[in-house]
Design goal:
The complex is a heterodimer of chains A (about 280) and B (about 240).
Chain A: H1 3-39, H2 42-51, H3 54-71, H4 77-80, H5 86-101, H6 111-128, H7 134-152, H8 157-191, H9 196-223, H10 235-280
Helix pairs in contact in A: 1-8, 1-9, 2-10, 3-5, 3-7, 3-10, 6-7, 8-9, 9-10
Chain B: E1 2-4, E2 7-9, H1 19-53, E3 80-82, E4 88-90, E5 103-109, E6 114-120, H2 124-129, E7 131-133, E8 145-149, E9 167-172, E10 175-188, E11 203-209, E12 220-230
Parallel strand pairs in B: 6-7, 8-11
Antiparallel strand pairs in B: 1-2, 3-4, 5-6, 5-9, 7-8, 9-10, 10-12, 11-12
The chains are: A mainly alpha (about 280), B alpha+beta (about 240).
């Protein structure tokens, strides 16, 4: 066996390993982009809430819970009809999310709800001349406030807020570092190969590898039904989480398609370049 | 043919060799293995958390409820066997034990103008539509404490008129059960001595928020205690 084929083989292996590393970096970068675009992005959460009708569904849920409370405390269901304004929920949820995403105090502000409930209750008591005990009324208002606050809480958010803050802080840097390493490998592949078509062959391997990995992830997410079997007490939160899961799954499919196109382009460029080289041989 | 450092290199025009398919697949497996390996340290806790957060089926958020109550007509008889004590008992296989949130009977206290559907479990849907049996207690015929809740502003508002000696009837698909009120009492909601769920005799405890017809909320509950006077027990296996 001649010396040259051995050197060629070693070079091929090194470039294959480099294209694998490039593929891995592209995959990790995509995951980081998903994290920044969805998990640690407050606007994405609010968008999903709007898309899934979260605020008005939440208003209905709270109304039903308050009707149950009313059944135990002398208030008729009519008292709560259209009482909850989805705008209070929108504003209080926005403030609650702001607090989490900025690492501030996470207490839900229910002052608007309390003020309106108290004034509506006073009006009802006066108009109907109902027998009351101040202490019992105070307890009722406290209970109603608790129902409102507890309903606005998003499960596990208080546990995740530390991680969300940490991730949102480091993610831009991680993406920058991954992009930089990817560029270095792209340049090494480009300038390490005298014949340009070879560089595009390795780019094809990297893009196709990333495409297949994302495709596998997308298939897994689609087949497993995303987050449809999650157990959540609140229907509004469930719809929001499922909508979130669907958006993430769609994004994974889109990125898989993007890398498929990239791989195809690299293959076309490679085949054109190799044709040119062969024709000059 | 191209010449490079004295080595004559021949380019192959063959496009799309095996490596174009195999290498991306190997890369895919490699990436997934590396990612799984990297997160394997936390994977155990993630899986156990997922086991709690996810179920095998989609959660049903419907406010509709299942009704298995088919009243037994006056002339109708239920299948009985002779129990260990020599008295008749309802065949256990003839009793469909209700699941949570299912309507399985009807409770009435004519003297208090109380008459409403009876559910298994005292969740929001049950109490919105009737009275609910506490899930950790018994249902009629099983020889234990039956603890039933209802709202004081709706179905159990009539309990304000409850007095000793009045009759309570619970109708189920496997027979009717009658109880006589022994006493009523107002207790704290956290008072664990207000009822005995481990009693070895059939007794009925109804409770609702107290006071009645007043706007406000307290920790007080009104309890109505009653003893079984008529009804065939369910066969004990």
């Amino acid at each position: 066996m001649s010396k040259k084929p051995v050197r060629k083989k070693v070079r091929d292996i090194v470039f294959c390993v480099l294209s694998f590393v490039l593929s891995l970096l592209l995959f990790l970068n995509t995951v980081c982009i998903f994290t920044v675009a969805f998990a640690v992005n407050e606007n994405a959460w609010i968008d999903q809430m709007n898309a899934s009708n979260y605020f008005s569904d939440k208003a209905d849920e709270i109304e039903n819970k308050l009707i149950s409370l009313g059944s135990a405390s002398g208030l008729k269901p009519e008292f709560f009809e259209n009482f909850i304004d989805p705008i209070w929920i929108t504003n209080d949820t926005q403030a609650y999310m702001d607090a989490y995403f900025h690492g501030n105090d996470d207490v839900i502000n229910h002052s608007t709800f309390k003020r309106n409930f108290q004034s509506q209750l006073d009006k009802y008591i006066t108009e109907n001349n109902v027998k009351v005990d101040e202490e019992n009324v105070e307890y009722l208002v406290d209970k109603a406030e608790n129902i409102y606050s507890a309903s606005l809480e998003i499960p596990l958010f208080n546990r995740l807020s530390g991680k969300i803050n940490f991730l949102s802080g480091i993610m831009p840097m991680v993406i920058a570092v991954l992009t930089m390493f990817s560029l270095v490998i792209v340049l090494v592949l480009l300038f390490g190969n005298k014949w340009r078509h070879r560089a595009f062959k390795y780019y094809y391997f990297a893009c196709a590898g990333t495409c297949l990995s994302l495709f596998t992830a997308a298939v897994f997410l689609t087949v497993s039904g995303g987050l449809k079997n999650i157990v959540l007490e609140s229907r509004a939160i469930y719809d929001m989480v499922v909508s979130f899961g669907t958006a993430v799954t769609t994004a994974v499919w889109v990125f898989a398609a993007f890398f498929f196109i990239m791989a195809f382009v690299m293959f076309v460029v490679y085949s054109r370049l190799i044709r040119k080289v062969v024709s000059t041989d | 043919m191209s010449e490079h450092n004295g080595y004559r290199h021949k380019h192959n025009m063959k496009l799309g060799g095996k490596s174009f398919l195999i290498l991306p697949i190997i890369f895919c497996f490699g990436i997934l293995l590396i990612v799984l390996g990297a997160v394997s340290a936390t994977l155990g806790s993630v899986w156990s958390a997922a086991g709690i957060v996810f179920s095998d089926y989609e959660k049903n958020y419907s406010t509709e409820y299942k009704n298995i109550f088919v009243p037994v007509n006056e002339n109708e008889t239920v299948d009985t066997v002779t129990g260990k004590d020599g008295k008749p008992a309802i065949k256990s296989e003839n009793v469909v034990y209700p699941g949570y949130g299912v309507q399985f009977g009807e409770i009435s206290i004519p003297d208090c103008e109380v008459k409403c559907p009876l559910f298994m479990g005292d969740g929001d849907i049950s109490l919105k539509n009737g009275a609910g049996v506490y899930y950790g207690s018994f249902i009629p015929g099983y020889g234990g404490t039956i603890l039933i809740a209802g709202h004081n502003n709706t179905f159990f508002n009539g309990l304000k008129n409850a007095k000793a000696g009045q009759e309570i009837t619970i109708r189920t698909s496997y027979g009717d059960y009658k109880y006589k009120i022994r006493e009523t009492a107002v207790r704290d909601s956290l008072d664990t001595t207000a009822y005995d769920l481990s009693a070895d005799y059939e007794n009925l405890v109804l409770y609702t928020c107290y006071p009645f017809d007043e706007v406000g909320l307290t920790n007080k509950r009104m309890f109505v205690y009653a003893d079984l006077t008529d009804g065939i027990p369910v066969e004990k296996n």
